[in-house]
Amino acid sequence: AEARHPSKKIESRDRIKCLMTGLGFNEAINYSFINHLSCDRLNLEPDDKKRQVVNVLNPLSEDQSIMRTSLIPGLLETMKYNISVQNRNLKLFEIGNVFFNTGRKDSLPDEIEMIAGLWTGKREDAVWFSKEIDCDFYDIKGVVEELLGNLGIVNSDFTHMPTASCFYTKPGFTAQVIIKDEPIGLVGELHPKVLTNYDLKQ
Q1: CA–CA distance, 88 with 82 (Å, rounded to integer)
Q2: Close Cβ partners of 85 (under 8 Å, ≥ 6 residues apart)
Q3: Alpha-carbon gap, residue 109 to 192, rounded angstroms
Q4: Are 65 and 189 in contact (CB under 8 A)?
Q5: Which of 43, 113, 158, 179 is least surrounded by Cβ atoms within 10 Å, i.e. has the fewest?
Q6: Which has the closest alpha carbon to 120: 90, 76, 80, 83?
Q7: pLDDT tens digits along 133-182
Q8: Strand pairing class (169-179; 66-67)
Q9: How many CB atoms lie within 10 A of CB 2?
Q10: Rounded to an integer, what distance in angstroms lies between the CA atom of residue 184 and that of residue 157?
């Protein structure tokens, strides 16, 4: 029998992975289970959808006691580990499913595939003739613009995120990513409280 063509979804995922690698990012692969304190560490509001967690029965540890509703905690834990072994300049991304509790008895959670990226440390590798500069909001915004452009998405907008809507990102350094009047994500620097909650200093 003739082999089936990969689905559009798989093609898109592979294309995004290829583009992110080309932009200098390494793929992270984290567990779908995270610490039950993750929502608090991300500063989420009590009614945030990301608090609709699915609890794991008989978890192996507290670090794997709920199913993730965000890829951010996994990336921050990966960052924390890398910094502990002196890898301070990191460009990471992850593509994976997040899981939301529907609240319906005997019902499977809602599963949504997401992408998240993280850039920390210096903008470029050190060279003798240039000063090292830390990456910032505009660097990571540029990555998102480059990714969208290479995917053929030309009608994207970046709009200011109001302070009241900034929970795990820094007010004044956060933007919503809008496509066809539809918010599809955000780009921003991490909130100082979140850095403290994860014992991160950069």
Answers
A1: 7
A2: none
A3: 32
A4: no
A5: 113
A6: 90
A7: 999 999 999 999 999 999 999 889 999 999 999 999 999 999 999 999 99
A8: unpaired
A9: 4
A10: 10
Pick left, alpha or beta for residue 43 (phi over 0 → left; psi -120 to 50 → alpha; otherwise beta): left
SS (HEC) of the chain: CCCCCCCHHHHHHHHHHHHHHHCCCEECCCCCEECCCHHHHCCCCCCCHHHCCCECCCCCCHHHCEECCCCHHHHHHHHHHHHHCCCCCEEEEEEEEEEECCCCCCCCCEEEEEEEEEEECECCCCCCCCCCCECCHHHHHHHHHHHHHHCCCCCEEEEECCHHHCCCEEEEEEEEEEECCEEEEEEEEECHHHHHHCCCCC
Dig out the tokens for 23 from the structure.
């932009």
165 and 138 in contact (C-beta within 8 Å)? Answer: no
Which amino acid is residue 87, in one-letter code? N
The amino acid at residue 117 is G
> How many residues belong to the chain?
202
pLDDT in tens, 38-92: 999 999 999 999 999 999 988 888 889 999 999 999 999 999 999 999 999 999 9
10, two tokens: 């798989």
Nearest-angstrom CA–CA distance, 25 and 89: 11
Look up the pTM and report it.
Answer: 0.90
